[in-house]
Task: structure prediction
Amino acid sequence: MVSGMILPEKGITMANKKSIKEHLAGAVGLLITLAAAFIIVLILVFLLSKDPLRTISYFFSGPFRNKFYFGNMINASIPLIFTGLGISLAFKSSMFNLGGEGQVYSGGLAATAVCLALPLANPFLGSIFALIAAFAAGGIIAGLSGVFKMAWDTDELITSFLISSALILIVDFIITGPMDDPTNNLLATSPIPLQYRFLKIYPPSKLDISLFFALFFAAGVYFFMNRTHWGYEMRMCGLNREFARYGGINVGKFMVIPMILSGGLHGLGGGFAILGTYDMCLKGFSGGMGWNGIAVALIAKNNPLAVIPAALFFAYLEAGAKAAMLHSDVTFEIAAIVQSVIFYLVTAQALYGLVSSKKRKAL
Amino acid sequence: MNPYLSMRGITKVYKDMEVPANSNVDFEVKTGEIHALIGENGAGKTTLMKILYGLELPEAGDIYIKDQEVKIHSPLEANRLGIGMVHQHFKLIGDFTVAENIVLGIEPKKNLFFVNREEAIKKVAEVIEKHNFHIDPSTKVSKLTVGQMQQVEIIKMLYRNVDLLVLDEPTSVLTEQEIQRLFETLRYLLTLGKTIIIITHKLNEVMEIASRVSVMRKGVMVATRNIKEVDKKELARLMIGKSVLFQINKEIVACGEPVVELKDVTLYQRGRQTPLLQDLNFSVHSCEILGLAGVGGNGLGELEDILSGLRKISKGKIYHNEENVTNLGAEALRNRGFAYVPADRLNRGSSLTTTVKENLIVSNHHSFLSRGVIKRKMVQDFVDTLQKGFSIDGDPDKPIGTLSGGNIQKVILARELAGKTDFIIFSEPTWGLDIASSQFVYEKILEIRKQGVAVLLISSNLDELLSLADRIIVLYKGRIVANRINDDTLDNEGVGEYMLGLRDDFARKGDNHGE
Result:
């Protein structure tokens, strides 16, 4: 940027100055938001807790107090990385996938079903099959909304949400009905065979090797969007569909492909959660992963690499709330309120950036 | 009688446009007249009216209403001064009722916060009744016809008690019967003592409804006349103006084979009785610049969309090198060697928030691929070459929106001329550009013509067409009314007469369209 400022062309220098200013404004804005959130949290905790100092301390430092909490916090960010990537990929292509919840859930069920169907297979091949099934389940579900949009111009925002809502109930039924294992006294399927369960890397926490896959996929999606043929065409469709069509890009195709990939990433999030964390498909295990993915993508401003810290931040808030709940007198509801206050403010900030850049585009 | 409205010395320069949109314009309207403001597309009529309505601020000039100097910063202020405007594209909310739309912004209130719906409907119904309109104030606007929506806009202005009503191209979206009904309404408004300005480029309507007419050309007010003292030919001459010859060295090149051929191309639109394009037959030959002229709304834009593969035709055939390419998409046409510099260069021709580099490769990014990955080194070399060849001023890694208008157009030209092409469409290639950039564009067009490319040049700038084109086709109401070699027998006025529907080489017997 500094080199830009000494270039002789006036226009470039000005553009650069502006972007530095904008970046600064963005960073300052985020800091102010965080400070405001912190103050509101303090007020809430002082009002609601009999031992506010203890609550605050656990809320913010709880996730770092021992290996168990810390590892579980990182582990909780893994599905959020997948769903956040799925959402940012769709958003970058100007497609809106609101069906994340159902896609994660179905992906988890598909992975479980494959594992249970192949009790004796090679662990490597078996888990690959399970993950492919998870990807396919999520991809097909979301892809449908893309196909509908291409064929009948239906709003993918609504269809993806509706399809997903219906699917959640169907998956619930399958888990508690045909695939229920009455021996484990849980609303869950049978546990998957031992050879499929991923290696834990940070005992006693549940953190497992899925983390590396999540990081790999984040880098992969980044490369895909920014360097490849399809990524370029998807971004052009996302930035200006009229321009993309004019340039000879098949815009109909890129209503379907981003949805398939987005749904597939959601499905993978579910699949990895089963193989790495849950070992069986529990009723409602994925609740919130889809919605939170949208929030993560918003904070990351749809940048696949920024999805990683955004997901960690989200997981940190969740772990802090849990720790505060366990170690002080706040109830689950209060912890959830505190968590959502922080979250609302941060998302509002991210959303504001998104909206104002859209406005600028419109002008 | 003193004028009701007087605008003096109005000057307005838009950013990125070197030619002022309004240059020292004087404009006067008398109380109780219908005053037509006419001119070609881009002559500055709409800009002048936007200034009057507070939508644009002029760089210089004063506005007087009944000899009082006024400053108008917003439409609300304009309303307060008794000025109302009906825009070409209606400003109505489809999901609101007629009454809600009419009271929007000045709603009758109930308890400070709530809109008093009953009161709104009652008041609007009174206005509707008083002026003999036939619209139910509780209907949703989305259920109305276009003509009725326009009536709602007029009622909205009556509700606001305006004295001066400006209508921007009010007839462009209406059917013949609706136009007659609109004119009845306008005559009725005159009896109420209202003053009306009507912006148009349809000369028949000017002659029918207006009492005086002002003509603008290229941002300058060229004449104001009483309607009784002029005829259509005179007005056409005033609108089009005398030819300004460009400095163009055009070599004579022998015309080659037809490259693109249209056979009976027809385009219907749902809900419209007359076709947008009707039985177009022509071909563009290699080494030929075919100029296409016409006033906006007569089918030029549709033809541009069709030949670039962005819109499908209803009937007819299109051939490229004698192969049928009817209704192929943009990608297929580009692969066959079609290139296209669109009129809408800020939305279609470029993606403003995307980098110059990525804008440059949209149509040929396939050629930089290696196993599905775009080779950045190759792109960089390509971009460097084009940037030098077309002297594009700007950073290729910055969004194209940071460039000037002329440089954006250079990026588009560079991209479209980079590939192997044998047919290229230029639509308004020099619109808004300064003389140097325009000259650059002309040189490029002539250069590729010499190389044997078939060129279709769509332009509202007649000087440009007459200087560049080998042949000129004029569209009027979706039909070809002239297809002539561009020689000494053709001049601005001649083409202007075709464009305004005063002449038609292909008129069928008993078909007196245009009247």
Notes: The interface with chain B takes residues 4, 7, 9, 11-12, 15, 227-230, 232-233, 235-236, 239-240, 242-250, 361 of chain A (CB under 8 Å). The domain at 67-316 of chain A is CATH 1.10.3470 (ABC transporter involved in vitamin B12 uptake, BtuC). The two ends of chain A are 26 Å apart (CA to CA). The first helix of chain A runs from residue 2 to 5.
